[in-house]
Design brief:
With 628 residues, this protein is mostly helical. Helices cover 49% and strands 3% of the residues. The protein contains 26 helices and 3 strands. Strand 2 and strand 3 form a beta hairpin. The protein is globular, with a radius of gyration of 34 Å.
Length: 628
């Protein structure tokens, strides 16, 4: 296949023009090129432009311009000389009456403007001006704007174009679609691009809005930093399965006159069901994860009421709530021809992690487990309890609905506690880390995995941990100290979590790798225990999740390569939460009292912790195995 001829755009001419005028090449590359501060690629682009522009001039018989555009003057180019008045202009200003002789006037001119004596400098300046004039001529001849059908390889440097193509982005139009669909974090689907590289590409696209069209606000900044009204503007309001902020509820279904409305004025500023939900959410505090769970369940019920039931939320009866319970239980589990509800179940289910501003967003990404259904019903009952207390609703229909779900023929996902790394699997994972390159990413993993497994912290608690939360206490028996970590858990509750010496030693090594003081307490309190690569900024929960999932998959591939396909399946399924289960299960199996495991993990109920102690299935298997 013949290589695609690269096109010349206005940004290329701006880059070349700045270079002709003596501006710093790195600054120009950072401002105009998608490759950024990479000086090697900037020089390569400069050489390509010089050849392309001079050849274009030759094709049109402009040999002088061709030679002029190839001249390399940067080595001797001074700062741009100031513009000097002509001798005639000087005479008109300084000697309008003609008092001075010609020689006297010239001498006065040179005394006033000594830089005029620099003949070489003035010649270079005139040469640069001729180069700039040639660029103006060639711009009309050669420069074009990118179009959606153009290949990315026609506009971007080869390494960047190859990364985009590997991510399924062959054209500029596909690039625009990916950015509009995925938003600010579109780049996570592109190998080795990164946030800064993505920002340069987005800036490049914005420079050609006249031919490519504008980008939405959610492509320019993280969604969490944008106010809800801006997100609503990215899609039209409609009565459909859309996020609650984009839902247009017909007035009869708004709840302004719902049959379950409490008579009189409610104790909240809410004229309709949507506003009542927002008032309820505003009263909730705690972790962002909990807030998202409340919003998600209220949104799902409101959508179901309006779209499927064609009722207002404050019109729902006990029978409606029973129907919703059963609907949640069978959604995504029923053959299409046996689906008993009006809207097909496929309309409610979309791909996981689809952004809310995307037209492909759906409120579900698959069927719910029985535990998730019961949790949803508990949240919705608490919503209606609150609506009754503030005199928005007259009664709570969920009070009359049983939480017992219909019997299912589906095989339960976990009869035993399976989302745990066994001791053997954990040893293999630690050994696998030793085979990875000794770089910053591996250094972080060598701390993070033992840290998470030893402490049992939740994902949000891991990324929230900082140096300022560490403290030491003297040992009661003998000299020495124990290290502890203050953790803000679910429900805004603090707990103290032990940091074993081996984890503290790994933390010292990790801090030193980051260029910090190995003594944790000698660093600024806000220093995160887990940071982004090349930065002291805390790692986000989603980034840590993806990083650990990646290393689990790498371990799985290593096992599969050794012919251990069955063992590899566990690592392919593993998530960050497995580390928390592993912590609890290993402690319980080693004889640690269950109440201490509960305290470490921050469980509100001892019943939750008991899942690590209730089963002895492997012992039963061993007994039977030895007798057969």
């Amino acid at each position: 296949m013949s290589p695609v001829e690269r096109k010349v755009g206005r940004h290329h001419l701006a880059f070349y023009r700045g270079w002709l005028q003596g501006l710093d090449l790195k600054d120009l590359a950072d401002r105009y090129l998608e490759t950024g501060l990479d000086l090697r690629l900037a020089k390569s682009t400069l050489s390509w432009l010089r050849d392309t522009l001079s050849q274009a001039a030759l094709r049109h018989g402009r040999r002088g311009e061709a030679r002029l555009l190839r001249l390399h003057l940067t080595a001797e180019r001074p700062q741009k000389a100031p513009t000097l008045p002509s001798l005639e202009d000087f005479r008109a200003e300084r000697d309008p009456s003609g008092f001075y002789l010609e020689d006297e006037l010239i001498q006065l001119y040179l005394d006033t403007f000594p830089e005029a004596r620099d003949k070489r400098g003035r010649q270079r300046q005139r040469l640069i001006e001729r180069q700039l004039a040639a660029l103006v001529w060639i711009e009309r001849l050669l420069v074009t704007d990118p179009m959606p059908a153009d290949l990315v390889s026609a506009w971007f440097d080869r390494p960047v174009a190859d990364r985009l193509i590997l991510a399924g982005i062959p054209t500029i139009g596909a690039l625009m679609e990916r950015v509009r669909d995925r938003g600010y974090r579109w780049w996570v689907t592109v190998p080795k691009l990164g946030e800064k590289g993505a920002a340069r590409i987005v800036a490049w696209l914005r420079g050609y809005e006249s031919s490519l069209g504008p980008l939405p606000d959610h492509a320019l900044a993280p969604v969490r930093s944008l106010p809800a009204p801006l997100l609503v503007q990215t899609r039209s309001r409609e009565t459909a399965i859309v996020p609650i902020e984009a839902l247009a509820v017909p007035q009869p279904l708004s709840g302004e006159t719902g049959s379950n409305r409490h008579p009189g004025q409610p104790r909240i500023q809410a004229a309709n069901d949507h506003q009542a939900i927002e008032s309820w959410l505003a009263t909730k505090s705690g972790s962002p994860h909990t807030s998202r769970a409340y919003r998600k369940e209220a949104e799902r019920l409101l959508l179901w009421a309006v779209i499927e039931r064609q009722k207002a939320l404050s019109d729902l009866t006990v029978e409606d709530c029973v129907a919703y319970r059963d609907w949640l239980s069978i959604l995504g589990r029923t053959n299409p021809e046996q689906w008993p509800f009006r809207i097909p179940q496929s309309e409610w289910i979309g791909s996981r992690n689809t952004p809310r501003f995307s037209p492909n967003w759906r409120p579900f990404d698959g069927p719910l487990s029985a535990t998730s259904v019961r949790q949803a019903l508990t949240i919705l009952s608490s919503l209606f309890d609150w609506l009754v207390r503030v005199q928005y609703c007259a009664f709570n229909p969920w009070d009359a609905v049983s939480r017992k779900l219909a019997a299912s023929s589906d095989t339960p996902e976990d009869v035993e506690l399976t989302r745990v790394f066994t001791a053997g699997q954990w040893d293999y994972l630690m050994a696998f880390l030793d085979t990875l390159p000794a770089d910053d990413a591996t250094s972080r993993l060598r701390f993070v995995l033992p840290f998470a497994q030893a402490t049992g912290l939740r994902l949000s608690e891991l990324v929230d941990a900082s140096v300022g939360r560490l403290y030491t206490m003297p040992l009661k028996d003998g000299l020495g100290v124990r290290w502890m970590l203050k953790v803000l858990g679910k429900g805004g509750k603090w707990r103290a979590v032990p940091m074993p010496s081996r984890v503290i030693n790994l933390l010292r090594e990790y801090l030193a790798r980051r260029g910090l003081d190995p003594d944790p307490l000698a660093n600024p309190p806000e220093t995160p225990l887990i940071s982004r690569l090349g930065s002291q900024e805390p790692m986000t929960g989603s980034a840590l999740y993806k990083t650990l999932r990646m290393v689990f998959h790498q371990a799985a591939e290593s096992l599969a390569a050794d012919g251990k396909d069955q063992e590899a399946k566990a690592f392919r399924r593993a998530t960050v939460h497995w580390l928390r289960h592993t912590c609890g299960a290993h402690l319980a199996s080693s004889g640690v009292p269950v109440n201490l495991v509960q305290k470490l993990l921050g469980h509100a109920s001892l019943a939750t912790t008991s899942i690590y102690t209730e089963t002895d299935d492997e012992q039963l298997w061993s007994e039977l195995e030895s007798r057969v």
